[in-house]
Amino acid sequence: MASATLLKSSFLPKKSEWGASRQVAAPRPVTVSMVVVRASAYADELVKTAKTVASPGRGILAMDESNATCGKRLASIGLENTEANRQAYRTLLVTAPGLGQYISGAILFEETLYQSAVDGRKIVDILAEQGIVPGIKVDKGLVPLAGSNNESWCQGLDGLAAREAAYYQAGARFAKWRTVVSIPNGPSELAVKEAAWGLARYAAISQDNGLVPIVEPEILLDGEHGIERTFEVAQKVWAETFYAMAENNVMFEGILLKPSMVTPGAESKDKATPEQVAEYTLKLLHRRIPPSVPGIMFLSGGQSEVEATQNLNAMNQGANPWHVSFSYARALQNTCLKTPTPSRSSASTPPTARPPRPRRECSSRTTATK
């Protein structure tokens, strides 16, 4: 009771003050301040580039393997990892007959961006002549994420603006940055937020330098989890990514996405049909991806050529507001790489004595795996 009395005497107005308390004070002027974010000077060009890459019936050839990774592919066919052999293999890829009919963009490694083909022409010029937009890998790779559950983060933001300005001058018009999320390792809240923020900063810097950013948070296939768990994690990752991009004033009309398909873990006992993969993946897109995004260019993510193609085909059986296509590396290159040729099988000299000759039969392989 004493407490109640104290409250009444200390805070409640007396009856004689009731009328005064009902008087409305004169409104004070309200000052509203707004910060106008400067649009990229390349805004119109970014939209045009994104729409070109996301043109009907075409997709992206990912040939941005580092020199070390390219060396592993060459080693699989008995070739030494030399610049001449890398040049010959990349020449093979970009000169496949009819490539521009099915490929709208090619992601290059830094060496390739400045490299000439075997015949002396610039690789970026060979692509441009076929209506293929040259792109460039700009991240610096994955490193351990301190404080996480043995997870990774992607480095490369330091000096990115200067590097991208130089890449633009060299002919690149879009960029790629890959980070990963591991389901068996959590994923931890820290890893998801770090992936989203890093992608958002990269996207903003890229647009400021005239490059359309491909946003790629790859959800790794490792694990025994089912498709429902992949779907749950994918929703979280894409929600965080688009929130971070909005915070960084990224223009959604001038980006491209490179998501993983929603599949069970690679070690899962429950396998999914192409129809199930399409159902879950499209449901994810409808829940998380704004229709203003011009293109969804799926990565194959460790799937076989056949699996990746069947799943993508199932997604394109119905209408959706995006251009749903591919950004494949191994799913376009594997069969071509392993196709035997007389120049290699019958050569009496060691494989490193000369670079491989372009194998024209690869053009049919390229179109078959679209």
UniProtKB/TrEMBL annotation:
Top-level class of the enzyme under EC nomenclature: lyase
Would I find Cell membrane among this entry's keywords? no
Which residues does the annotated region (Disordered) include?
A: 337-370
- Catalytic activity of the protein: beta-D-fructose 1,6-bisphosphate = D-glyceraldehyde 3-phosphate + dihydroxyacetone phosphate
GO BP annotations, alphabetical order: glycolytic process
Q: Where is the composition biased (Low complexity)?
A: 339-351
What SUPFAM superfamilies does the record point to?
Answer: Aldolase
Q: Which PANTHER family match?
A: FRUCTOSE-BISPHOSPHATE ALDOLASE
Protein name in UniProt: Fructose-bisphosphate aldolase
